[in-house]
Amino acid sequence: CDSLADQAGGTAFAATVAVALAGITPVSGGSGQITCFGDSWAAFACDSLADQAKLHLKRNKVVNKGVPGSTASVWAGNTQGMLAQIASGGFPEFLWLSIGGNDILDGWNAGICQGNATTPSALTCYDQILNDTTIMLEAMFKVDPALQVVHFGYDFPNFVGTPTCVAYASTVFHGDTSQVNANQRFLGFETHVLQPLAKQFPSFSYTHPTLWGTLQAHGAQVGEPVPGPYPNPVFPSPEALMNDGCIHASKQGWEILMAALWESYFASRT
Q: What's the pTM value of the predicted model, to 2 decimals?
């Protein structure tokens, strides 16, 4: 796809970036602003995160800077554009990062990643996502060493709830419609990307709470009980809670996930 610089028209884009970056002021733990940044999960769930701030009587400003469809690969190749996107809402104290899922789906769909989560090509794909995300984070922390990033990854998709989702899985994974295999590919992301990132950066700067299975644990509430313990890698997230395009939560699902994110991270930092 075209880079952000190409889309914005080269010189004009560079000028926009310069203006945005000039306005960045390291917050040193003071602004309280929470920015949702990354892919569609950040874009679609940010309102639910703002609801959590209000529910807990917090006055943190929550800003949505998610870009549906974006990847770690694209942002790593254009860190100036990434910083401009973040800074356009005011540089935050906290940043919820959602990235890597599209890299997984795109990689398998393009045949770059092949087979299950343990094949050599899959491990090469995870290594690339790890490298790209590291570039992103280093660029953020260079601008503001006091920035606090939380990156939980995702929860399981549902590729079996509807014929459309079965067909989607078949297309992306080249005929493999197994929910178990899909879950393992995302758990591979946990093992080979998220956990290494948590070891690479100080816990103050980068935190990785694990929320896999959060929606499964709420399945009984919507008439779709999933046996524990959670996460259960055999089952998808309940269809009633993960029903927007097979890979995005419903409104109720977002509320559950953001409540879990708040309790696991923001409750102790705001």
A: 0.89
Surface-to-core class of residue 143, CB atoms within 10 Å of its CB (0-12 exposed, 13-18 middle, 19+ buried): middle
The two tokens of residue 218 are 């709420």
Q: Which residues, 6+ apart, have CB-to-CB distance to 162 below 8 Å?
A: 239, 246
First-to-final CA distance of the chain: 38
Residue with tokens 């559950």: 256
Q: Give the Cα separation of 186 and 194 in Å (integer).
A: 11
Q: For residues 170 and 178, what is the distance between their CA atoms, to the nearest angstrom?
A: 9
In 3-state terms, what secondary structure has residue 156? coil
Tokens for 183, please give them. Answer: 């879950």
Distance of alpha carbon 225 from alpha carbon 218, whole angstroms: 8
Q: How many residues does the chain have?
A: 270
pLDDT in tens, 72-102: 999 999 999 999 999 999 999 999 999 999 9
